[in-house]
Each structure stands twice: as structure tokens, then as C-alpha cells.
Amino acid sequence: MKLNALGSRLPRLTFWRGLLFALWILGAYVAVIRFTKGLGAVTNLRDDFPWGLWIGFDVLCGVALAAGGFTVAALVYIFDAGKKYHAIVRPTILTAFLGYLLVIVALLFDLGRPWNIWHPIIMWNPHSVMFEVGWCVMLYTAVLALEFSPVVFEKFRWRWPLRVMRSLTIVLVVAGVLLSTLHQSSLGSLYLIVPQKMHPLWYSPLLPLLFFISAVGVGLAMTIFESFLSHRAFRKELELDVLTGLARGVILVEVIYLTVRFLDMAGRGTLSFAFHPTREAGLFWAEIFLMSVVPIVIYSVPKFVVHRTWLFWGAVSTVVGLVMNRLNVSITSLEGWGGAYFPKWQEIVVTAALVATGFAVFEWVARNFPIFPREETAEEAALAGEKPAYA
Fold it and tell me: What is the count of structural domains for the chain?
């Protein structure tokens, strides 16, 4: 650390901080162009291909990768999975909260008229899937803010609000699970209206169910992924049995996902497309192996599932496979009808800046707020009303 003229500390410039600042500068430049000259100036979107990277990755992937929030909360508070999992609640809630905030920012970039984003609040259209998604995202973001608020109250020692929010924990968790289930599946429902335009490998009347199942699996994998990064960045280490328990959950969910998907394809006669020598077939098998097969194999081998490095790479494979799946559904499957699409560098910069911002904010919050478990002092126990900090 260095001191400036006022004597305050300046963060040491590292490669990652330099990259972050560069992305912020480029992102700000792109934002000015986008909001002054429109989508056409910074994207390769067209009338026949109106949804690209900002929907396929920033929204579809962003929402799915934030699924650890409701998955882990349900595991701990509804299914009563044991006290050992309490340690992962706050980091996953923080990740989900940041994820949804960044999804909202991404929507502001993608919407043709972002200043009208408030319209669904008063202009109701209950027959629209997008209306339901919009309301669920708004409400679940509010729920995540409330679920995260005890961290802020503990930091500033606000006794009464802390006790009130802890008394509402179960209500918030149930509301979060309900809202997440609705909009995770509804994101898949968005594509049910274009069956004739999507490639047979990705269109399915079960898309809502497949979106939900895959979100649950990647939510568990993201928790393992976060644990590894937290250990590297903050030296905060979770017990190995916590990570192996999550890995077993990934196996179960991915087996269910593969069973549902392949039975559905076989029943509708579309499985044969996976064996054609096409680019689409290659991308299909890539997502299947990365999202499901690789983590199932890694986490089924006893010597791998108790090794942190293998746990991490199994989680990485699941996350990358999920990203491929959402991009295949939103982009690859529609290219046969709308023509080829590849994002402009401006689209990639905005996406990279949002992801980098998420990492940066997580780091700042983790360093300044009680996110990770620690031994509770008598004073803190009294502040919490004689309840353990992670109950």
C-alpha cells in the first residue's frame, strides 16, 4: 500500500486491478455510445436476430449462475441439511444478490428503451412470460437484499433490525425458492414460442423444466467454485465434507437432467440429430459432456471427490457447460433461421466489465463485512439475541 498526499492508503496496482480499471473505462465508453446512438452502434443485433450475447450470457447465464442463493438456502433452512452447510449460506446469498443486480444492469443495456423498464409495475400483462420473469426478478432481488441485510446489521451493530430480519428468515427463504423456481423455468418458456425457428437439438416443450434442473445443478457447482476462490483470495476454507456433500448433490441433479433430456429427445424423435456430422451436433455433445458427464465422472471417483483441486475442476466444467447450454439455446439454435451472429467487441467488453465488477464487489464486501464464519464473541451473541451468527 502507498500513501497519497492526504495520508490515505492507495491500493497497490496489480495486473487484475489494472485489467478491471481498463474494462471499466472501455465499458463506460461503450455505455455512452450505446445510450446516445442506440443498439445498432455497439451490437451486431438485427431484426431477425434481436437477442444476442447480452441476453444469452448476461441474463440467461447470469440468472442460472446465481441459483446457488435459493438452492443452498433451501438446503439449509427447508431441508434442514445440517449445521455444517450454514457456513456457505452468506457467500452464496451475496453471489446471488450481485448476480441479479448485474442482470438488471445488463437488461438496461439490452432493452431498446431502458427508461421504460418500470412499465411492467403498472402495465400488467399476466399472459406474457416476460411479464412474469420481470416481476419475479424484481421480487427475488428484493428478497435477496432482505436475506443479505443481517450482514449489514451485524456490521453496524443494529440490534433491533437484526432480530426482526432473523425472525423472517424462513418466510424469505420460502419466498425466494418460489420466485426462483418460477423465473428459472420461465426463462426456458421464452423459447417455447419459436419451435419452428429453433434447432431440434435444443427445442423442447420441457425447456422450462430443463432450465430449472440445470440451474439447481450449477447452483451447487458455483458454491464449490466460490469456495476455492475464497480460499485463494481470503484463506477462508470450508470443511471438505461440505464440498463433497455439494458434489454428491451435483451428481444427483445432473443424472436427473441427462435422464429427462435424453428421454425427451428420444420420445420426440430428435435424438438422431445429435449423430449428424454437423457443428450443432458437436456443440450439443460439448455442453452435455462439460455440464453433466465430466462432473458426474469426477465426483463419482472416491479419490477425486475428496481432493479440492478435482472438486474445483468438476465445478468449472459444470459452469462452462451451463454457459454453453444457454448460449446454444439463445444463439446457436436460432442461427439456422436468423443467420449467423457473432457479438461486436463492444458487446464482449460490456459483458466482461459486468463479470469483473461482480468479482470486485464480492471481494470488497467479503473483506469489509462478516461474510465468512468465525468464532462469535459474547458481545456478538448478545447482539444477535443469543443466537449463533449463522443460524
Answer: 1
